[in-house]
Amino acid sequence: MIKQIDLMFRTMVAELQQRAFDDDWAEDFPPSGRFVPVAVDGRRYWYFDQPDGEGGQKRRYVGPADDPSISERVETFKGEKSDYKARRKFVSTLTREAGLIAADRFTGDIVQVLAKAGLFRLRGVLIGTVAFQCYSAYLGIRLPSAAILTGDADIAQDFAISAEVADSLPPILDLLKGLDPTFGAVPHISGSSRSHAFRNQTGYRVEFMTTNRGAEEYSDKPANMPALGGASAEPLRFMDFLIRDPVRSILLHGAGISVVIPDPCRYAVHKLIIAGRRQNDAGGQAKRDKDLRQAGMLFDALPVTGHGPSLVDALEEAWDRGPAWKLAISEAAETMHKEYGGAINRMVGILKR
Q: Are the C-beta atoms of residues 303 and 311 closer than 8 Å to each other?
């Protein structure tokens, strides 16, 4: 059974997470600007107006006014000094002494560039294995390094959010080329001129996904995403379940990167669903094995870390969404690795009654 790291280290993670978020906030919103509430379709959002140096104002999206973490900072707005060096020491202690695993350097640099450009401010969500490794810090657990190896970075954004925020990242390809000039857009299999993926010379991929709008005309075609700096996104089924109510965590790289990731309970259940729908060819089996291991580790860890009731809620929500969801969950549970199968099969067995 997975065990939590010492309380001292868990406290350090929480402090690092808060400081990283505060530093991003101070850098994004200097004292020269002001926050402005804007109503869109009956809901209030915060925007930030800042002088553009030419006598005008530049307006940027901040977030929904009903998000407590945002509204609290708006109310207490002031320029805050960064403590970058102290944060680096925190990261070093957590990786060397607590046994938490840092992101590989290139992945960390990719996420850092996108974060600085405003990805998470614009409500982007890290998904996939890069998000999974963030659960180590979020839950205060040690994860085996084999479970977090990856050669890509996957990012999601809700389609409606991208259309509504009236703000955008700088050109994505320019950001990536700033790290590695060999990055280029990957042609979409549909033949569309839009691209949702970018790859460098070594094969590292950065991909963007979004929620499936359901209509047949949108399937198998990349969706136009106004907030993603020229990148489109691949509409995927079940994505709405995964990225609903995401959480803030920390990626252990450099001085720590404040990131947004799926709720771990939703991630665990989503991995079950995806594993249950994988093809039986060699590629599909390898991906299924990885999905099942990640789901199994979280099903093992979440009850230990106080998230058991939320995990049950997420599983029940998915189960109640229809026959395709039930079938995928059932098939994944039947093929789960023995070391993790007990808890999952007990939960699924209760749902089947």
A: yes
Residues paired with 46 in a beta bridge: 37, 63
Can you spell out the DSSP letters for 247-273? Answer: EEEEE-STT-EEEEE--HHHHHHHHHH
**Model confidence, pTM:** 0.89
Domain boundaries, the chain: 81-262, 264-353
- Axis crossing angle, helix 323-334 with helix 264-276, rounded to the nearest 10: 90
pLDDT tens, position by position, 29-87: 877 788 888 888 888 989 988 887 777 888 888 888 888 888 887 877 765 556 788 99
pLDDT per position as a tens digit, 111-156 = 999 999 999 999 999 999 999 999 999 999 998 876 677 789 999 9
Q: Is 172 helix (H, G, I), strand (E, B) or coil?
A: helix
State how far the Cα of 319 lies from the Cα of 352, in Å rounded to an integer: 9
Residue 236 host element (H or E): strand 232-236
The Cα 252–Cα 88 span in angstroms is 9
Distance CA 244, CA 254 (A): 28
Nearest to 350 by CA among 315, 303, 309, 298: 315
Using alpha carbons, list the distances in angstroms from residue 212 to 209, 288, 319, 334.
Answer: 9, 22, 19, 27
